[in-house]
Design goal:
Elements (H helix, E strand, L loop, with lengths): L7 E7 L23 E5 L1 H4 L27 H10 L1 H4 L4 E4 L3 E3 L4 E3 L2 E3 L7 E7 L6 H13 L3 E6 L19 E2 L10 H4 L9 E2 L11 H10 L2 H15 L5 H16 L3 E4 L7 H21 L11 E4 L12 E2 L4 E2 L8 E4 L2 H4 L4 H12 L7 E5 L16 H10 L3 E5 L30 H19 L2 H4 L1 E6 L3 E9 L2 E9 L5 E5 L8 E4 L4 E4 L4 E5 L4 E5 L1
Parallel strand pairs: 1-25, 2-3, 2-17, 3-8, 8-11, 11-12, 12-15, 15-16, 16-17
Antiparallel strand pairs: 1-20, 4-7, 5-6, 9-10, 13-14, 18-19, 19-20, 21-24, 22-23, 22-25
Helix pairs in contact: 2-4, 8-9, 12-13
Length: 546
């Protein structure tokens, strides 16, 4: 795993910023900022099975293809891991899970085999939760438990399309959806006003026509005894906002209910580039209002003054393009339409570059074209067939580069434990195996997990890592600083990588007034001699002011 290549020596200076974690709680005195967030992303059904009573049994005559059916993971399983302190140990301060709304009941037969909506992206009803992954009560408990640990909750949301048509799930009315043409990505029109794939009806977000509720929803709500309540809420929403009853405004109402009912802290917006950007501006406006009202009604549940967070999946957006996404015939600034950040498809290739090449690139762009905004970096994900380190041979390097690069960091479930990205199956199914909990006791896995934990906790304590300015100090060993100033917050970090000599002496005099510093990696207290500390070859140091 090339651990020997990762000779990491970190010197940390904390100027006016308390940073020692309170053991066990997940909360600390370090200020939270989305620009420095470490966001753990999991496929809900693949992470942890906390409630076996909701496990779905596939029909014997329609068994799923490899890694394309339900496996039992659920919201209760996420809550159990929060309580266990799993995310706290990784320095995670936000979690994002695949959509929890009710998905289609049936299955489809694709070129990749029989597939079910285990992933959550095939919505059937935007007002209900999928019983195969959780109940309202379980979701409420999960969010509240996360907040108790100082962890924000980001929910994955969809407006672009419904779920596919199956034997059990009829198509929505024509005034709501279109079933063609299929997208071919040559320009704006062929990317936005089209269907992503066959049999994935596209919501007519471009429509100016007012529409009535789909008959199948009316019938469903009546059977469930909540038709009158849902209609009354819709009437109140449209009256108070003045919005026309166009298709996407219904969905804005339904998605904002997640904030009003549970106090979620952010959205990850799916397939953002396939929808007119004005849709997201309206969604963000309503979400922000709802979040402010929720925080006012729940004082003290979650510390910090951050506004509602929205990060977009604009597929193939690269940080190197700054604020703009280029459709070919039109450029769109999604950051101007409600997004605090976009998922950065550049990082998986940037991670092959030397540290300084990565860090100077991100510093220049984030503090110029993207000033006031950010990106979400990742090394692997649920639908990217070209991740960094697909074979998991550079796992220590992947952790170091992801967690020390500016911007927010996305840990895809199992990055920290080297879960296989080459599982049985076709297409993105290879990326979606169940979490490898059974490998956690292996010595290699424990060593890798320890590396992720120490870097993650270090990053969590220091907003300078993701949100600060970068400055190279020396080439050999490679040393750089990060500094972050915002109001009363003044955080500075000095990091050295690739200590190739038998040992190096590094000046830490500015860290101490009592001749001692703490190495957070080993937990040892070091005596400083003439302002210097010895860094031995091949070891990892995380020095902190005592």
């Amino acid at each position: 795993m090339l651990r020997s290549l990762l000779l990491l020596f970190v010197l940390i200076s904390i100027l006016g910023c308390k940073t020692q974690s309170k053991s066990g709680s997940g909360k600390d005195d370090a200020p939270f900022t989305w620009e420095n967030a470490t966001i753990y992303f999991m496929l809900t059904d693949r992470f942890n099975n906390g409630n076996k009573s909701n496990d779905f049994v596939h029909p014997s005559d329609a068994l799923p293809a490899d890694n394309r059916g339900f496996m039992g993971g659920d919201v209760k399983g996420i809550t159990l891991k929060i309580k266990e302190g799993y995310f706290d140990s990784l320095g995670v301060n936000a979690i994002w899970m695949t959509p929890l709304l009710q998905n289609v009941d049936g299955y489809v037969n694709e070129g990749t085999g029989t597939s079910y909506g285990f992933h959550g992206y095939w919505t059937k009803d935007w007002t209900a939760f999928d019983s195969r992954v959780g109940t309202r009560e379980e979701i409420a408990e999960m969010v509240k438990t996360a907040h108790e640990h100082g962890i924000r909750v980001v929910m994955d949301v969809i407006i672009n399309h419904t779920g596919p048509v199956t034997a059990a799930d009829p198509q929505w009315p024509d005034e709501w959806v279109k079933i063609g043409p299929r997208c071919f990505y040559k320009d704006y029109e062929s990317t936005v006003n089209c269907t992503l794939v066959d049999n994935l009806p596209d919501i007519k977000t471009e429509s100016t026509q007012e529409v009535e509720l789909p008959p199948m929803l009316v019938e469903k709500w009546k059977k469930e005894g909540r038709y009158e309540i849902e209609v009354a809420e819709l009437d109140a929403f449209f009256k108070s906002t003045g919005y026309p009853r166009r298709p996407y405004f219904y969905m804005v109402k339904w998605l904002v209910d997640l904030i009003k009912d549970f106090g979620i802290d952010g959205y990850r917006v799916d397939t953002a580039k396939h929808t007119e950007s004005s849709v997201w501006k309206d969604l963000y406006a309503e979400a922000s209002t709802a979040y402010a009202a929720w925080k006012k009604a729940h004082p003290g549940e979650l510390s910090g003054k951050q506004d509602f967070y929205m990060v977009g999946e604009v597929y193939n957006y690269y940080i190197g393009n700054g604020r703009l996404y280029d459709y070919g015939d039109r450029q769109v600034d999604f950051f101007n339409d409600g997004f605090n950040a976009l998922i950065n498809f550049d990082f998986k290739s940037d991670a092959n570059n030397p540290y300084e090449t990565i860090f100077t690139k991100y510093d220049k762009i984030l503090h110029n074209q993207l000033a006031g905004k950010s990106v979400l970096n990742y090394i692997s994900s649920h639908d990217d067939g070209g991740p960094f380190d697909r074979e998991r041979t550079r796992t220590f390097e992947a952790a170091t580069k992801l967690l020390l690069t500016q911007g927010a960091a996305q840990i895809y479930y199992g990055d920290e434990s080297a879960r296989s990205l080459t599982a049985d199956g076709l297409g993105d199914a290879t990326l979606r195996s169940f979490m490898n909990w059974d490998e956690m006791k292996k010595e290699d896995t424990k060593a890798l997990m320890a590396h992720w934990k120490k870097l993650g906790q270090f990053r969590k304590r220091h907003p300078a890592i993701g949100a600060g300015r970068h400055n190279k100090i020396s080439d050999v060993p490679y040393v750089f600083s990060r500094t972050y100033k915002n109001g009363k917050i003044n955080d500075s970090v000095v990091i050295a990588l690739d200590v190739t000599k038998d040992f190096s002496m590094v000046n830490v005099s500015f860290l101490t007034t009592n001749g001692r510093v703490r190495d957070a990696y080993s937990g040892k207290i070091h005596k400083v001699m003439s302002g210097m500390v010895r860094a031995d070859k091949g070891k990892v140091y995380l020095f902190e002011k005592i």
